[in-house]
Amino acid sequence: MTYSPVPHSADPSDLHRMADEWACAQLITSYTHLVDFGNASAIADLFVPAGIWRNDEFAMEGQDAIRAGFARREGVTRRQSRHVCTNIAVSVDGDTATALCYLVNYRHDSTTGQAELPAPADVPKYVGEYHDQLVRTDQGWRFVDRYCTISFLRPSKH
């Protein structure tokens, strides 16, 4: 018997669910590209107007606060980073979804004031998770609540 990962007669509802899961995963990936390639303030557009980005230390509530917070990140020109999101798990329930993904952040702050390419490699700055609440909108899937937790943190060098 040969293993077939895709059934020969797929239920159309399974295809819709898989398309929604893929769209949610693409939203997560878009977030990483915006922050890593100098357009972090545009992350606000990935949220609903009253969306929340938070961690254990602070929260940014609403698109204006999220845009302002990530605009400050854009201003850090000495930083080279890559936010690697993996093990993405999405659960869709109609027009809402939850997602969990692992986050590995590689980061180097140049002493020259401008990011270096390639940046010197070291262990990740931190490893954690994003816990997401998402909703389908007229513009596609958007974050309602994005909660970041950190599980491992590289110690500061003194």
Overview of this protein structure:
The protein has 158 residues and is of the alpha+beta class. It has a single domain, classed as Nuclear Transport Factor 2, Chain: A (Roll), CATH 3.10.450.50. It has two helices and six strands, in the order αββαββββ. It has a six-stranded mixed beta sheet with strand order 2-1-6-5-4-3. Strand 5 (126-137) and strand 6 form a beta hairpin. The protein is globular and about 55 Å long.
Order of the strands making up the biggest sheet: 2-1-6-5-4-3
Q: Biggest sheet: strands, sense, closure?
A: 6 strands, mixed
CATH class: Alpha Beta
Mind telling me which CATH architecture this is?
Roll
Number of helices: 2
What's the pLDDT, averaged over the residues? 90
Quick one: overall form? globular
**Could you tell me the radius of gyration in angstroms?**
18 Å
Straight-line distance between termini: 60 Å
Q: Give the helix level as a range of percent.
A: 10-25%
- E-strand count: 6
Task: Return the domain count.
Answer: 1
| CATH overall fold name | Nuclear Transport Factor 2, Chain: A
The stretches of 5 or more residues where confidence is low (pLDDT under 50) are 1-9
Order of helices and strands: HEEHEEEE
Structural class: alpha+beta
Strand content: 35-45%
